[in-house]
Each structure stands twice: as structure tokens, then as C-alpha cells.
Amino acid sequence: DCPFFFFSYVLTSTYGADPSSPDNTTALQNALNAAEGKTLLFDIPGNYVTGQLKPKSNTVIEFTTGVTLTKKLNGVRVMYFDRVQDITLNARNGFAVGDDLPGTTAFSSTMQYEAAKRITINDLNVVGSAAGGGGKDGHYIGLGPGNTPCEDIHINGGSAKYCKRLGGAVTGGLRTRINGVELAYNTGAPGAGVDVEANVDGV
């Protein structure tokens, strides 16, 4: 199901992203870089194995139906929103899988936001479990350099399940909204759905 006019989008396939590839990190990051200020379309459904991806500001990311991003061994995160702003991800019930494979030594949250502003995630299903002792969350919303908080992170629909610590952790966010997200089966300590705590005064 791909109801888009391809000429108006940057396509991940143009940059070599392919669900049959054992590692799509470089191809997908190149596509994200090219899509800054534009719309990026994952035009081929399937499971993309990838390392950490860093979306650029002022970007819309569209999944076609049936897209999954799966973290590779020691991929750290699936997506890292690091000091960026004005990004929308329309996942269409796609998945971000942060499972840590046996042998993993680099643990982190599946979707991480630090000092990011106006990020909207729609209908994304986050799955993540840890093979080792590293704590990890489905969505981690925290402080960036200089204790700069995130602002206006909105997560709508979808789910966050089987995460090692929390479905969602908000440790540094202003006006955070988590709306209509199914949070379940999270394990480890504290094993909660959402945990909200201020890492610095006033946040």
C-alpha cells in the first residue's frame, strides 16, 4: 500500500536501501541527509536492518505500509533525534525493533530524543528487549548539551512493548505528549509503561 506520487518525494530506494541488504545504515542515512527540508518515503515495504539513524530538521518521513526498521548488532539505537527540530514520522503502523542480539555490548533506547523540538511520531510500534544488563526504553526523551530539554515531543498511536526498562521515559521534556500509545510487557527495573522524572530543576 503506497498511495504516493513518487516524483514529489525523496525515495529510500534511490540511495540503495533494500530490505534484502544485511545492513542499510549508510543507504538510509544518505537518504535522510538528502531529504532535509523535504519528504522521505520508504517506498519498498519490508524489514530494513540498520544501525543508528539521525533524521535531519524540517523533514517528513513516510513509511509505506509494511515497513520495519530493525537494529543491527551493536547498532545502539534505531533513531536518534539529536538537537533537531520540526520532524514528522508517519509510520502507518510500521515497526522499530530495538532487540539486542546476543553478543551486544552497546545498549541504548530504541527511539531517543535529546534537545529536540517539535517532533511528531504517528502510529509507530516500538519493540525492544535487551540481551544483557544495559537499560533501555522504547522512547527516551531527555536532555541535550547544557541540560537543554526537549520541547513538544508528540507520540501518537502505535505501541511500545517488550522494552528492557520502560515503554517511555521522559527525563527532560517540556510539553511532552504521549497519546493513544499501547504500553505493555516491559521488563526489568522499573518495568513501567511511562516514567516521568526531572533530571534538572524546572524541567
Topology (elements, then pairings):
Blueprint: E1 10-11, H1 25-34, E2 39-42, E3 46-50, E4 59-63, E5 67-71, E6 79-82, E7 85-97, E8 111-114, E9 117-127, E10 137-142, E11 150-156, E12 159-161, E13 166-170, E14 173-174, E15 177-179, E16 182-184, E17 192-196
Parallel strand pairs: 1-2, 2-4, 3-5, 4-7, 5-7, 6-8, 7-9, 8-10, 9-11, 9-12, 10-13, 11-14, 11-15, 12-16, 13-17
Describe the 3D structure.
This protein has 203 residues and is mostly beta strands. It is built from one helix and 17 strands. Strands 1, 2, 3, 4, 5, 7, 9, 11, 12, 14, 15 and 16 form a twelve-stranded parallel beta sheet that branches. Strands 6-8-10-13-17 form a five-stranded parallel beta sheet, with no helix packed on it.
Record keyword descriptors for this entry.
203 residues; mainly beta; twelve-stranded parallel sheet; five-stranded parallel sheet; 1 helix; 5% helix
What composes the largest sheet?
12 strands, parallel
Query: How many beta-strand elements?
Result: 17
**Mean pLDDT rating:** 90
Structural class: mainly beta
Shape field? globular
Short description:
The chain is mostly beta strands.
